[in-house]
Protein: Crp/Fnr family transcriptional regulator
Organism: Leptospira perolatii
Amino acid sequence: MTTTLCKISPKTAPVNDWITLYSEFGKLIRPIGIRKKFYKDQSVFSEMEPYSGFFEVTSGIFKLYSLNTNGREATLKIFFPGELIATPPMFQDEEESVYPANCQSLQEGELILYPRDKFLSILLQNPRALFLFSAVTVEYLTYFRQKIVENAFFSVRDKILTYLIESGGSQAYVSLPIAKQQLASLIGSTPESVSRAFRSLIEDGIIREREDSYIVIREAPALSARHFYEFKR
């Protein structure tokens, strides 16, 4: 698998409202941003660490993950340039506001930290900004709810197919931006099961492979039904 950055669709990166927010209030937001560079595998924040603000990814790839009592890791989300990390705690009481999970860089990259107090001051003084930022946060919460449902009811094949579609794989060949082991953790599976699922999807003519890149030829019935449900909802 290559580590070439693939196209990320609006479904996994709800940045449209953030782009609008930044275009309208950039003069207020830009000065408070603090740029931070990270090398590969460097920690950004830890679970239950006091919340200092949210981050915007400007380069690199970052993962949000949790660890159980035995140290087993569960990847919650992979973040790409343009996405925001840890927006929900912005709306918690300051004394109770903590990061809900761990965050780490998967490759060298840069984040912009928007400090909680300064950004919250902008929101409270500008109802339009508050509305747009709330919309961004709701989209991320919706994303996590959807992933919980998928991990509970979707097969490994369907999870991989969903990931490829969300990465732009229904329009063009895309390379996986993360290693097979990381993808397995993201969808709650094992690297061996992921390899078998890719092979099965190729053999069934659902996806096509070319130089470690993939394109979705046709969707599985389960996914078509899910997309219809989302449209109707």
Remarks:
- The two ends are 36 Å apart (CA to CA).
- The CA atoms of residues 3 and 178 lie 6 Å apart.
